[in-house]
TrEMBL record:
UniProt keywords, alphabetically: Chloroplast, Plastid, Ribonucleoprotein, Ribosomal protein, RNA-binding, rRNA-binding, Transit peptide
Coiled coil ranges: none
GO biological process: translation
Chain segments carrying region Disordered: 23-43, 121-152
Gene responsible for this protein: LOC110427433
PANTHER family, A to Z: 40S RIBOSOMAL PROTEIN S11 FAMILY MEMBER, SMALL RIBOSOMAL SUBUNIT PROTEIN US17C
Family to which this protein belongs: Belongs to the universal ribosomal protein uS17 family.
Subcellular location: Plastid, Chloroplast
GO cellular component: chloroplast; ribonucleoprotein complex; ribosome
Comp. bias (Polar residues): 23-39, 143-152
Chief location: plastid
Transcription regulation is among the record's keywords: no
Name of the protein in question: Small ribosomal subunit protein uS17c
Amino acid sequence: MSITSSLQSLKLSSPFLDGTTSLSLLSKPNSSRSHQPLKTPTFLPPIRAMKSLQGKVVCATNDKTVSVEVVRLAPHPKYKRRVRKKKKFQAHDPDNQFKVGDFVQLEKSRPISKTKTFIAVPVPSKNGRQEKKETGELGIPLESQQPQEQQA
């Protein structure tokens, strides 16, 4: 009995769920009561939910179009071993900046033509992410590099 009494004592936060909202307010979404701009938090990164793939350019002879081969690993249906699956996509390259062998990232976009729905974007190089390699000198000279004192 205590569960039912606790449920009855709970107050619903929304007047819609409580049933006290009139239908006239629901039919007018532009009313000043319901029109409040939503504030997006500034500390969150932008949402990038669009599909993106990485691949290698295999053909760049067409104008503003590159053919990109994407390799993925998928389990074999019978043997359950992961095997490489390759698929070629046509991607839009507006500046003709990519050559055969370049690694690109494919971003999903609106259909540009019958076969092109991706835009080719350069992949950030892995060298830029690596830390600077030190020269190996610690600043302390080795014994062989120290000036030797003459003994008399």
